[in-house]
């Protein structure tokens, strides 16, 4: 016989049905660390009303077009009662959300810059290897090593001349 004060716990299927999403959606948000349901003795996920409210919040924010990174920042702050009687974020919470998102953007800018440097290095190496590959293929095709080396030297000198003019 259930105790009146005990919270109702729902399985993944029941919670998904109540929220009108798939069980996979709930599991995905758990994998992303947005929700941490309790577990039964048999290790089944069990969702309480707080979990369902959190999921509802996530789903509303997703429907409004927010990214999961943005939602993660927003979930760190509680909703508060506003002057209009609605629940929302205080100015302080919004500033904290802004700061968290700005920090993520800065971090991504640094990663992009690093990847762009690596890409340039990889493109340069590819060009050098392509020249080497071309040389070996021409040698295999029977071209003279001396002639190919002269062409490589002339090409390298031309590249250096163009590089100093730029």
- Residue fraction in strands: under 5%
What percent of residues adopt helix (DSSP H or I)? 55-70%
The radius of gyration computed from the alpha-carbon positions, rounded to a whole number of angstroms, is 30 Å
Mean pLDDT rating: 89
CATH top-level class of the domain at 7-66: Mainly Alpha
CATH architecture of the domain at 7-66: Orthogonal Bundle
Low-confidence stretches: none
- Run of helices and strands: HHEEHHEEHH
| Coarse morphology | elongated
β-strand number:
4
Helix/sheet category: mainly alpha
Characterize the main sheet. Answer: 2 strands, antiparallel
Number of helices: 6
Q: What is the name of the CATH topology of the domain at 7-66?
A: Multidrug-efflux Transporter Regulator, Chain: A, Domain 2
Order of strands side by side in the largest beta sheet? Answer: 1-2
The CA-CA distance between the termini, in Å, is 84 Å
Structure report:
This protein is about 65% helix and about 5% strand. With about 170 residues, the protein is mainly α. The chain has a domain at about 5-65: Multidrug-efflux Transporter Regulator, Chain: A, Domain 2 (Orthogonal Bundle), CATH 1.10.1660. The strands form 2 sheets. It has a two-stranded antiparallel sheet. Strand 1 (about 40) and strand 2 form a beta hairpin. Helix 1 (about 10-20) crosses helix 2 and helix 4 packs antiparallel against helix 5. The protein is elongated, with a radius of gyration of 30 Å.
């Amino acid at each position: 016989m259930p105790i009146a004060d005990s919270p109702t716990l729902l399985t993944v299927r029941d919670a998904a049905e109540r929220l009108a999403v798939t069980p996979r959606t709930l599991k995905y948000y758990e994998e992303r660390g947005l929700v941490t349901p309790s577990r039964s003795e048999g290790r089944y996920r069990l969702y309480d009303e707080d979990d369902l409210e959190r999921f509802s919040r996530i789903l509303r924010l997703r429907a409004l077009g927010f990214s999961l990174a943005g939602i993660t920042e927003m979930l760190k702050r509680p909703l508060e009662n506003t002057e209009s009687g609605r629940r929302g974020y205080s100015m302080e919470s919004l500033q904290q959300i802004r700061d968290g998102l700005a920090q993520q953007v800065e971090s991504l800018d640094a990663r992009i810059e690093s990847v762009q440097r690596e890409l340039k290095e990889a493109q340069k190496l590819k060009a050098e290897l392509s020249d080497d590959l071309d040389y070996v293929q021409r040698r295999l095709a029977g071209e003279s090593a001396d002639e190919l080396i002269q062409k490589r030297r002339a090409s390298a000198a031309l590249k250096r001349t163009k590089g100093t003019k730029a």
